[in-house]
Design brief:
With 434 residues, this protein is an alpha/beta fold. The chain folds into two domains: 153 residues, Aspartate Aminotransferase, domain 1 (Alpha-Beta Complex); 244 residues, Type I PLP-dependent aspartate aminotransferase-like (Major domain) (Aspartate Aminotransferase, domain 2, 3-Layer(aba) Sandwich), CATH 3.40.640.10. Helix content is 40%, strand content 18%. The strands form four sheets. It has a seven-stranded mixed beta sheet, sandwiched between helices. Helix 12 packs parallel to helix 14. It starts with a helix and ends with a helix. The protein binds pyridoxal-5'-phosphate.
């Protein structure tokens, strides 16, 4: 017999603190995050007291434990087909790749297990295809925590301790067209890696001028354009890929997060057959030189196929429309509050920028955490107050002034209205304190 869920729910949270990462556990405790969820109903998390929470992280865009994806996984496990093929020629990977290509206009797919895996695949593909050394990323970026990806990370505690970083990586200031042009001019850049909307950088969309420049200049100088769509893809921005709206299709687009329906890990690097062949087409050894053992497993692909079935054009169009309506509602609700700056984003990828009020009491120093003294508090305090209202919201990792709201796609309108009202009332409360 396996371990019982009841026993794990009783002891496993403490075991996480003891055996996995005490700092994550302590951070969550200090921030008073709801931690001990025991049940999912209707896509929503519940704690032992029966209180429900909307998860606004964005990873579960189809709701927690989506029943259609769970059924597909269950059906696969109940069958007798192989999950893993020693040759690596896995028919489920083949079908999923075909479906992704038909949907996006790409013609070649590499599968990984995480967003960072897909980023690594892109960096290696670009180096091997172009044989050029330099890689450009933007300040404010977040591309994951493996070595290549972390080299592209915005400077700071998630990046700095790991030097020396991947040679050849340089950061261009966000949205600085002149700096991009100058960095690309020598013609020795293999890839420019950008997020269409920076997530951890503060829900910042690339400006139309920067999009035009990055599309034109990468083509001119022979660099591959990599759209890191780990946050923006699969409808989150109101389009299947946010980069669909760009004047030039990037050579590479990266997707992850909900590709496995929020239940199993899987990521994908989408590219074109000719780019793959330029990089890896010379001989059999090179053809297998980028690989991951479980990247081609049937179970993950089955979950992703079920996810693609759910993410039809109507659902994605509704994300575009409802996202715009919710952003207006939220901006209207928050207007006039002295701590509010603006609501921004696309689709259901939404950022609320707040004022960094330098109040001596509302400071991490005052809360007994001098190492965070430079960090703004209003965003984290608003998150804290939203927990009590049944909303699990976050601030952006690189910019704590910005509240990040990424609802599931089938969140009812009434719940969005409650979220706007809760943001207004709780921010009013904080404004009165400060
Ligand atoms: C834009 C972007 N790229 C890459 C990643 C890394 O994904 P993963 O955490 O699955 O490795 C993230 C993670 O949030 C991300 O936001």
């Amino acid at each position: 017999m396996g371990e019982s869920a009841a026993d794990i729910l009783k002891h496993g949270f403490g075991e996480f603190r003891a055996f996995v990462n005490p700092l994550i556990a302590e951070r969550a405790r200090l921030a008073r995050e709801p931690i001990e969820f025991v049940r999912v109903e209707g896509g929503v998390l519940h704690d032992a007291a029966g209180k429900s929470y909307e998860d606004l992280h964005g990873t579960q865009m189809l709701g927690h434990r989506n029943p259609a994806v769970a059924d597909a996984i269950r059906g696969f496990l109940d069958s007798d087909v192989p999950n893993w093929f020693p040759s690596r020629v896995n028919p489920w990977a083949g079908r999923l790749a075909r479906r992704l290509c038909e949907r996006t206009g790409y013609s070649n797919v590499f599968f990984g297990m995480s967003g960072a895996d897909a980023v690594e695949a892109a960096l290696k593909l670009a180096r091997a295809a172009t044989r050029k050394p330099r890689i450009l990323a933007l300040t404010g970026g977040y591309h994951g925590c493996t070595f290549g990806a972390v080299s592209l990370m915005h400077d700071g505690p998630l990046h700095d301790p790991f030097g020396p970083h991947l040679p050849g990586v340089e950061k261009v200031p966000f949205d600085d067209v002149d700096a991009l042009a100058k960095a690309l001019a020598p013609g020795d850049v293999c890839a420019v890696v950008v997020e269409p909307i920076q997530g951890e950088g503060g829900v910042r969309s690339l400006s139309p001028a920067m999009i035009a420049a990055v599309c034109e200049l990468t083509a001119k100088h022979g660099a591959l354009l990599v759209a890191d769509e780990v946050q923006t893809a699969l409808g989150r921005s109101g389009r299947f890929l946010a980069s669909e709206a760009w004047p030039r299709k990037p050579e590479i687009a990266l997707i992850a997060k909900t590709l496995g329906g929020g239940l199993v890990p899987i990521s994908a690097m989408l590219t074109q057959r000719e780019t793959f062949e330029r990089a890896y087409g010379q001989n059999f050894f090179i053809g297998e030189s980028h690989n991951t053992t479980f990247g081609y497993n049937g179970l993950s692909c089955v979950a992703a196929l079920a996810t693609l079935d759910l993410l039809d054009d109507d659902l994605i169009a509704s994300v575009a429309r409802r996202g715009a309506e919710f952003r207006s509602l939220l901006a209207e609700a928050l207007r006039g509050n002295p701590l509010f700056t603006e609501v921004r984003g696309e689709g259901f990828m939404i950022g609320v920028e707040l004022v960094h009020a330098p109040h001596p009491w509302l400071s991490f120093e005052h809360f007994g955490m001098p190492e965070l003294a430079h960090q703004p508090t209003i965003g984290p305090l608003l998150c804290y107050r939203l927990y009590a209202r049944g909303f699990f919201a976050f601030v952006c990792g690189h910019d704590w002034r910005v509240l990040r709201l990424q609802p599931r796609f089938d969140i009812p309108d009434a719940r969005l209205a409650e979220l706007a009202k809760a943001c207004r009332e709780e921010l009013d409360h904080l404004a009165n304190l400060s």
